[in-house]
Amino acid sequence: MILNKQELLLVTGGAITASLLNALARGITTIVDLGRALGTAIRRIASDHICSL
After folding, report:
1. What are phi and psi for residue 46, nearest 5 degrees?
2. What are the backbone dihedrals phi and psi of residue 18, each rounded to the nearest 5 degrees, phi first?
3. d(Cα 31, Cα 35) in Å, to the nearest integer?
């Protein structure tokens, strides 16, 4: 489908959707959780409180 110049001017889109916001929130949550886990691991190694099997 080929659009002419008038039809191209009427094209709209690119709005922020709920699914985009949800994906961003999940991404930020994942990064925070990874940072928390990494910080806990470093703290446990540094304080020598590692459980051995």
Report:
1. -65, -35
2. -65, -35
3. 6
Q: What's 1-53 look like in SS3?
A: CCCCHHHHHCCCCCCCCHHHHHHHHHHHHHHHHHHHHHHHHHHHHHCCCCCCC
Compute the C-alpha angle 40/38/30, nearest 5°. Answer: 115
25 has pLDDT over 90: yes
Mean pLDDT of 20-43: 96
Gap between the Cα atoms of 28 and 34, Å rounded? 10
